Amino acid sequence: MTKDKFEKIDEQVDPQEQSTQPGSEEKMNPEPIYDDEDYTGSGKLEGKVALITGGDSGIGRAVAVAYAKEGASIAIAYLDEHEDAEETIKAIESYGAKGVKFATDISDVENCNQLVVDVISEFGQLNVLVNNAGKQFPQDDFLAISPDQLMETFSTNIFSMFYLTQAALPHFQKGDSIINTSSVTAYRGSAELIDYSSTKGAITSFTRSLSANIAEQGIRVNSVAPGPIWTPLIPATFGSEKVGEHGGETPMERRGQPSELAPAYVYLASKDATYVTGQAIHVNGGGFISS
C-alpha cells in the first residue's frame, strides 16, 4: 500500500527539543502540515468572525487556515511567537480572508476582556470562539508539581476559557459557537502530565455544563479531543527521544497532523452541526474512548 503524505512526514521527524513553551513552529523539523491541499472550502463560515487562541501555530494555525478557506474572518491570539503568528496571517490572507493577530497572555482576565474588545472593534462582531491555547509540563514525580506550575497550567488551559467565554458571550447570537480543545488525556489520564490532564478533564466538564447552561440561547458548545498531534508543544515539552516515538502507540502507529483536526472544528462551527452541543469529537488515531 502506498504511504500517504501524513505517514511520509511522520517518518521524517528527527529527534529535537525546544527550550520554551508553548514552542515555535518555525523551529520544527519537519514543520507540521497545517494546510491540507486536498481540503477545499465551500463557504460554510461565510460572514462569520472567529477568534482562535493559540492561533499562531499547531492546531490553531490549521483551524485558522481551514476557516479562511470557508470564508470566515479570523482573529488569532498568541503569547509571543511573533514570526509564527505572521506566517499564519499570511496563510489566512492567501485565501482572501481577513486575518488580525493579537499578542497577549490569556491567563490574565483583563487581557481576555481587552482581547474581545479589540476583536469587536476590528470586526464589529464575533461568532466563533475557539479556546485552543495550552501548556504542559511533564513531571514523573507527582510531589514535584509546584504551586507555580499548577497555577500556570490551570491559568492558561482552563481559567482562560472562563475569562474569554464570559467576555465573548454578550456579543454572541443564536447559531454562534464555542469550541474547546480538550485532549485524549482527559479520558485516559497521563502519568507524567497530571496537572495538564486535570485541566483537560475540566475542559470536558466545562463544555458539557456550559452547553446545557446556554442551550436555550441557541449557542452551541463543543470540544475536540486530539490524540498525539505534531505541534510545537511536543518538542517544547518532551526530550528528543520521546519526540521521535511520539504517536507510535496509537492504532494507526503515527502522530497526527494539525490539518487532520481542522475539519472537526469547521464542522462544529458550521450549520452542519446545528443539533450538536455538549459533545467531544475524538481525533486520536484510532484509540477507543469510553465517555
From TrEMBL:
<dbReference type="InterPro" id="IPR020904">
    <property type="entry name" value="Sc_DH/Rdtase_CS"/>
</dbReference>
<comment type="similarity">
    <text>Belongs to the short-chain dehydrogenases/reductases (SDR) family.</text>
</comment>
<feature type="compositionally biased region" description="Basic and acidic residues">
    <location>
        <begin position="1"/>
        <end position="11"/>
    </location>
</feature>
<dbReference type="Pfam" id="PF13561">
    <property type="entry name" value="adh_short_C2"/>
</dbReference>
<protein>
    <submittedName>
        <fullName>NAD(P)-dependent oxidoreductase</fullName>
    </submittedName>
</protein>
<keyword id="KW-0560">Oxidoreductase</keyword>
<dbReference type="GO" id="GO:0008206">
    <property type="term" value="P:bile acid metabolic process"/>
</dbReference>
<dbReference type="GO" id="GO:0016614">
    <property type="term" value="F:oxidoreductase activity, acting on CH-OH group of donors"/>
</dbReference>
<feature type="region of interest" description="Disordered">
    <location>
        <begin position="1"/>
        <end position="40"/>
    </location>
</feature>
<dbReference type="InterPro" id="IPR036291">
    <property type="entry name" value="NAD(P)-bd_dom_sf"/>
</dbReference>
<dbReference type="InterPro" id="IPR002347">
    <property type="entry name" value="SDR_fam"/>
</dbReference>
